[in-house]
Structure to design on (506 residues):
């Protein structure tokens, strides 16, 4: 994994009617986003969830591929008729869609020649110039087409193969984050947070999120930055106004 | 709620750095999507998750508002500096942003004049011509601007106020769904499903999703349609090929 000392970003494109309809709760966004930041210094800046419709996949792949350093797609690379991600990506980039030699070999050896039926063979079809993301769980590989990395939809399979994406990514600056939990309401500290956010506009993102704990109301103040030094400064400023305002702090460890 | 005997669609726009970064697991997509389909016959066709950045919110609101019958936004309508949804929507539609008289009264009476500070007053600021979505949990109302319905980000508050969206929606055709759980692998039934999907291309969506249960592999075949009659037909066809192929069915009730 090469290093690049600047911000590297990504989008996630979730392909699947089952997520859109509300039948299935997506779990891949939090997993991929956390993994990318912690391990690769890549920040996810947009997520889209779209149906299994070819023209929709094509237009979204093109759009996101042009806007971000990387695009991660999940879903739609299995053996059934509704798995159309590979074909759609080939069309989006005008690359020939067909059997990928190495993927074919991997799947043939996994299933054995006799059990390697048409449905399973379909999983070896993709943009023919793609590079593979190996899959230790169920053999069927993911693939990389230009700056688009395509993964399956099943969370446990993604978890098992995500490390194999690393070799295709350039490492950016990791975003560090810190949280201070204050027993107060947002409106009591909104001015203070605004002053801090304005002072650190370029380096730190300050967010506030209400929480409820044993009947008490609180606010988690989360601040994120690629600079640890700036986080220390912001940390001091928050503790300082909390002290002045006599706001209690919830310590979790 | 007026009725319209055709398909009505919607998009969901999740606004919030905390979801994108993976810190917080989104729960609003499944809730809103299920509620819309079951109660209003509205189908969610796209979801986007974007950061708290004004120009990003503006371009996404404009884009989705033009593409779908309704857009639901969640997040960014609280009292702090990172709550910029209302202002951004006003800019997207070039509507004046300022105190909404009714919202101001609701909040003033909820907090009492003494405790109605600047942060809280901010929650009464929105596109001034918006209509309100009443909030029984924490008083601060959501609002409707053109075809965009803006809700807060906290799931429990959304759950408590979602019914108040109904009056602003035209009712479409409900999508019914049925699931058959087969103890087989996808590649064994992919041809059969494809034949069925091709026959019912215009009326029924057929999807297949692998599952694992007590060490056994299975496939949930989910089929969805606005026509109950077509669902009955597809149901028969699936049971028929399952019988021919001697595939066991998992009955959950």
């Amino acid at each position: 994994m090469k290093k690049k000392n600047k911000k590297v970003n990504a989008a996630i494109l979730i392909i699947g009617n089952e997520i859109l309809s509300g039948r299935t709760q997506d779990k891949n966004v939090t997993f991929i986003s956390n993994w990318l930041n912690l391990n690769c210094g890549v920040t996810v800046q947009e997520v889209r969830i779209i149906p299994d419709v070819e023209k929709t996949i094509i237009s979204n792949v093109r759009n996101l591929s042009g806007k971000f350093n990387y695009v991660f797609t999940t879903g739609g690379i299995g053996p059934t008729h509704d798995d159309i991600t590979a074909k759609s990506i080939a069309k989006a980039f005008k690359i020939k869609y067909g059997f990928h030699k190495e993927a074919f070999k991997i799947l043939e050896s996994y299933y054995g020649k006799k059990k390697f039926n048409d449905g399973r063979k379909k999983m070896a079809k993709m943009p023919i110039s793609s590079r593979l993301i190996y899959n230790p769980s169920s053999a069927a590989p993911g693939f990389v087409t230009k700056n688009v990395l395509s993964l399956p939809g099943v969370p446990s399979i993604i978890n098992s193969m995500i490390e194999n994406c690393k070799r295709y990514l350039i490492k950016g600056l990791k975003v560090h984050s810190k949280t201070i939990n204050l027993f107060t309401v947002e409106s009591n500290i909104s001015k203070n947070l605004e002053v801090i956010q304005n002072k650190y506009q370029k380096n730190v993102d300050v967010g506030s999120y209400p929480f409820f704990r044993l009947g008490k109301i609180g606010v988690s103040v989360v601040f994120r930055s690629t600079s640890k030094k700036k986080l220390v400064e912001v940390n001091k400023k928050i503790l300082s106004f909390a002290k002045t305002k006599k706001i209690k702090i919830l310590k979790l460890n």
